[in-house]
Design brief:
Blueprint: E1 4-10, H1 13-21, E2 28-30, E3 38-39, H2 46-59, H3 65-80, E4 85-92, H4 96-109, E5 118-122, E6 143-144, H5 147-161, H6 166-171, H7 182-190, H8 202-214, E7 217-218, H9 219-228, H10 237-248, E8 255-257, H11 269-276, E9 279-282, H12 284-291, H13 296-300, E10 304-307, E11 309-311, E12 316-320, E13 325-329
């Protein structure tokens, strides 16, 4: 068997292109999946999970199913042949988007015979926003992944995929310092559950807070304002439009404006620009929800996934941000 020198795995295409341009070789694999959106259920192997993820991505009009699943199958095949590489180097950031990808990859490699050639670079800045020169500085942080890190990642990935968020919440009581960005991303993940009183996720609350304080605003600017509220940016604009459209297209809208349609993911750039220039305004109902006088879930219901947890009106896990604890309503 011919052994290739190094496989680099990173979060997406922007970082992959920069690493190639910076001279780290052209064998760079972008992971691409937005794991904080949509179902990531347990009991599926990596190819079965890839199929579920590709179906979800197609359902959102974020990509063509056949193209996406073929990309995922190719990706999976490359990591399943880990022994073919002298070295595997994982380049990931500190935010929720990257850290979930990292957990999935470490979980897969935890059962591999190539454990002694897998290295990790954890960046405290955004790889895709670097230059070919500045991205080189992160290489000095490369360390061989330890058994403790593999074990912790495996347990965290399994917890994320469980049908309830209880196991993830329990990790907050453990020592997770072996993966220093794990604790903050678990906490941020739990904050995307509906609030115990208002039914708002943290993202929804940030949207309504800004519109209440600053008044009507173009949705492109609103996305930037909400992003500025994050300790570590993780959400792309396409994910954000889903949250915003959910608030504006509900039975009882919390946001209104000049909307004529939801974000046109499969339309041309001019139609997308037209959407971004629309103006969003908080409704009176949105104000009541924000004040804790109404409950978004009670009024509008819920049907979304957070990892392996399917949130429905009859079985809705909530996060008490005051007490940092879970509640189940239904």
């Amino acid at each position: 068997m011919t052994t290739e020198r190094t496989l680099i795995i990173t979060n997406g295409d922007s970082a992959a292109e920069l690493l190639i341009e910076a001279g780290f070789g052209d064998n760079v694999l972008p992971w691409r999946d937005v794991l904080h959106d949509g179902p990531v259920p347990a009991s599926l192997n990596i190819d079965e999970l890839s199929e579920a993820r590709a179906r979800f991505i197609a359902s959102r009009n974020w990509g063509n199913y056949e193209e996406t699943i073929n990309q995922f199958y190719d990706r999976n095949q490359r990591i399943q042949n880990a022994e073919a590489y002298e070295k595997i180097s994982l380049w990931f950031e500190h935010d929720l988007y990257d850290q979930l990808q990292l957990l999935q990859i470490l979980d897969h490699f935890s059962g591999s015979s190539a454990l002694d050639n897998i290295w990790l670079i954890q960046a405290d800045d955004y790889l895709g926003m670097q230059t070919p020169q500045s991205i080189k500085r992160f290489s000095k942080f490369e360390t061989l992944i330890t058994d403790v890190q593999f074990d912790l990642a495996k347990r965290a990935w399994a917890a994320f995929r469980e049908s309830s968020p209880q196991a993830s919440a329990c990790l907050l009581d453990e020592d997770t310092s072996a993966l220093p960005y794990l604790e903050p991303i678990i906490r941020r993940l739990l904050q995307e559950l509906p609030d115990n009183i208002t039914g708002l996720s943290r993202t929804e609350k940030q949207i309504l807070d800004i519109l209440k304080k600053e008044g009507p605003m173009q949705v492109g600017r609103l996305f930037k304002k909400v992003s500025d509220c994050e300790e570590a940016l993780f959400m792309g604009d396409w994910s954000f439009w889903i949250w915003l459209d959910g608030l504006s297209k509900a039975t009882r809208p919390a946001v209104t404006g000049t909307y004529t349609q939801s974000f046109p993911f499969d339309a041309d750039i001019e139609m997308q620009k037209a959407y971004i220039s629309q103006e969003a305004t908080i409704t009176e109902f949105g104000r009541r929800v924000l004040n804790g006088d109404s409950d978004l879930i009670v009024e509008n219901g819920v049907d979304r996934w957070l990892g392996g947890t399917h949130l429905l009106p009859e079985s809705c896990w909530r996060w008490d941000s005051q007490l940092n604890k879970l509640n189940l309503t239904g």
